[in-house]
Amino acid sequence: MTAPDIIHHLRLLPHPEGGYYRETYRSAAGLRTAEGQPRSVSTAIYYLLENEDKSHFHRIKSDELWFFHQGQTLEIVVLDGPEPTTILLGSDFSRGEVPQAVIPAHAWFAARLRHPAGFALVSCTVAPGFDFADFELAQRATLTAEFPHLAALIEQFT
């Protein structure tokens, strides 16, 4: 299948951070965050990036797990300390790829295809569940002020 076929078949929509998505699960069970906000225990989405699409630097207030389904290797860049960490999400274990990855709560992260041709289809789960109130899209100037030595990387993903 091609990326347009998958987007159509799974009824994916454009995502504000880049790429395409559709929520597939929202737990009926709830909880309250440390700030007292109600959230679902967990949520899940399909997420697809194609060609030169990027998931721009953003962060959320919950842990997020990414699961590779098919397509090209996805490069996830995480800023959770002074130096970036790169996770290769894919199915070629001999090349250091992994089929799932955890992005810690509050960490800045972004993603793109390792080689910008084709697509990658993944699923993401968030616990406590995702809410756009917990989503922050990075502003280039703000993130560069926090990580001035990573200005070139930040420019690629903002």
From TrEMBL:
DUF985 domain ranges (all copies): 5-138
The superkingdom of the source organism is Bacteria
Name a Pfam family for this protein: Cupin_5
| Stored InterPro entries | Cupin_DUF985, RmlC-like_jellyroll, RmlC_Cupin_sf, YML079W-like
Q: SUPFAM superfamilies per the record? A: RmlC-like cupins (SSF51182)
Protein's name according to its UniProt entry = Cupin domain-containing protein
Query: What species is this protein from?
Result: Hymenobacter persicinus
